[in-house]
TrEMBL record:
Organism ancestry: Bacteria, Pseudomonadati, Bacteroidota, Chitinophagia, Chitinophagales
Name the record gives this protein: 3-deoxy-D-manno-octulosonic acid transferase
Active-site residue list: 60
EC numbers, comma separated: 2.4.99.12
3-deoxy-D-manno-octulosonic-acid transferase N-terminal domain location: 45-206
Catalysed reactions, semicolon-separated: lipid IVA (E. coli) + CMP-3-deoxy-beta-D-manno-octulosonate = alpha-Kdo-(2->6)-lipid IVA (E. coli) + CMP + H(+)
Keyword line: Cell membrane, Lipopolysaccharide biosynthesis, Membrane, Transferase
SUPFAM superfamilies assigned to the protein according to its UniProt record, in alphabetical order: UDP-Glycosyltransferase/glycogen phosphorylase
Source organism per UniProt: Paraflavisolibacter caeni
Function of the protein: Involved in lipopolysaccharide (LPS) biosynthesis. Catalyzes the transfer of 3-deoxy-D-manno-octulosonate (Kdo) residue(s) from CMP-Kdo to lipid IV(A), the tetraacyldisaccharide-1,4'-bisphosphate precursor of lipid A.
Record-level GO BP terms: lipid A biosynthetic process; lipopolysaccharide core region biosynthetic process
Top enzyme category: transferase
GO terms of molecular function: Kdo transferase activity
């Protein structure tokens, strides 16, 4: 099986090279790994101890942040190195001050894994949620470096648990300890005789709670939304924006803040053409006197979304008509009812928030209009959903503390 995996890694690189001629993300993927070994050798200290944390992309890095912050508090002598598979994750981390070193992860080959570990010499390695790179995991385990998987979740239909899944399951045994989000994941692992695991919960709850607790105002947005019913639509795709266009026609008094997943010029212009009275955030000024002339505020930057939801009456989170639902906890923490599309079954928090009464799934424009009509016209219904959303987040905090309790009990790091 390992030879099939190695062939896959080889051809993946080849495909990315071909795609890079037309695809900007593929180009960044390649450019970011150029001269990676020289960068590592030049930037990393020769003596300071390092904790290495790997996240696939932006969402997983949000899960890593509470852990990084606690590491800095509890183990200040250690430097934190973060790696990423995707350009979006790397770009999201560039301005994050608590990570001392940020790199793309070199491609997973046996040679690369050994070379990387020889340079970094980590005292502890943490992989976030998923991304199982065989050679890295095996090399870490063979060197007896503590290796943790955090905020993970498992389903019975994953490759680990299929009849052909021995190769994949073997990677789970490389971990020193696996922290899962829920009882279902724990039971699935235990049924496979994987017992080096425990329930911690999801560190995203700690992350969004910290953002809410340390909220900083966005004055222009506050003035745009003052005393108005507002829908904040985050991480939207064209499929989501098509529904919002129909909704705007049915609710002309409803204001919109739209933070699309992609902020390239073509996508922004498409939103401007769809939604009524649009304005770009970047083209407005804090002293703008005519904000009330606009019905739609388009956020054409990255990094604001987790604060924007506070300004809405209702939140819409995109992705569940396309690639997969984006982060609904960023909205729920502020006590905002959350609406999203039909493809949410792989997201535990979506199913649980629906059951709690703080979220609603829709399948078409008529569904969306009906939900909005109920929430805007029935203050009791809005209050109940809002309280359910806030309580759901509050009741699920604490994953970071549970992870650190295990780190300390097992003495995986020394102060």
């Amino acid at each position: 099986m390992i030879w099939i995996y190695n062939i896959f890694i080889f051809f993946y690189q080849f495909i990315v090279k071909i795609a890079s001629f037309r695809n900007e993300k593929a180009k960044q993927w390649l450019v970011g790994r150029k001269d990676i070994w020289a960068q590592l050798e030049q930037q990393l200290p020769s003596k300071e101890p390092i904790i290495w944390i790997h996240s696939a992309s932006t969402g997983e890095f949000e899960q890593a942040k509470p852990i990084i912050e606690q590491l800095k508090n509890s183990y200040p002598a250690y430097k934190v190195l973060v790696t990423f598979f995707s350009p979006s994750g790397y770009n999201a981390a560039r301005k994050y001050a608590l990570a001392d070193y940020k790199f793309y992860l070199p491609v997973d080959t046996r040679r690369n894994a050994g070379r990387f570990l020889n340079i970094v010499r980590p005292q502890l390695v943490i992989f976030v949620k998923y991304e199982f790179w065989y050679h890295y995991l095996k090399s870490i385990s063979s060197r007896n470096i503590p290796l943790l998987l955090v905020s993970s979740s498992f389903r019975k239909n994953q490759a680990f648990f299929k009849w052909y899944g021995g190769f994949y399951k073997k990677m789970l045994h490389f971990f020193t300890w696996i922290f899962v989000q829920d009882v279902s994941s724990l039971n699935i692992l235990n049924q496979q005789q994987i017992i080096h695991c425990s329930i911690s919960g999801d560190t995203r709850f700690d992350r969004v709670a910290a953002i809410e607790e340390n909220f900083s105002e966005i004055p222009l947005v506050a003035r745009f939304t003052a005393n108005e019913n507002v829908m904040v639509a985050g991480s939207t795709w064209p499929e989501d924006e098509e529904l919002l266009e129909t909704l705007a026609a049915q609710f002309p008094a409803l204001k919109f803040i739209i933070a699309p997943h992609e902020i390239n010029e073509g996508h922004i212009q498409n939103i401007q053409n769809r939604l009524p009275s649009p304005a770009r955030f970047s083209q407005l000024k804090d002293n703008e006197s005519n904000l009330q002339d606009y019905q739609t505020l388009i956020i054409d930057n990255i990094g604001m979304l987790s604060r924007l939801y506070k300004y809405g009456s209702i939140a819409y989170v995109g992705g569940a008509f396309k690639t997969g639902l984006h982060n609904i906890l960023e909205a729920a923490v502020y006590g905002k009812p959350v609406i999203f599309g039909p493809n949410y079954q792989k997201f535990r928090e979506a199913k649980e928030l629906i059951s709690a009464g703080g979220a609603f799934s829709i399948t078409n424009a008529a569904d969306l209009q009906q939900k909005i009509s109920i929430l805007l016209n029935d203050q009791h219904a809005l209050a109940v959903a809002s309280e359910a959303a806030a309580n759901y987040v509050s009741n699920n905090k604490g994953a970071t503390a549970r992870i650190f309790q295990t780190i300390q009990e097992k003495r995986l790091l020394t102060r």
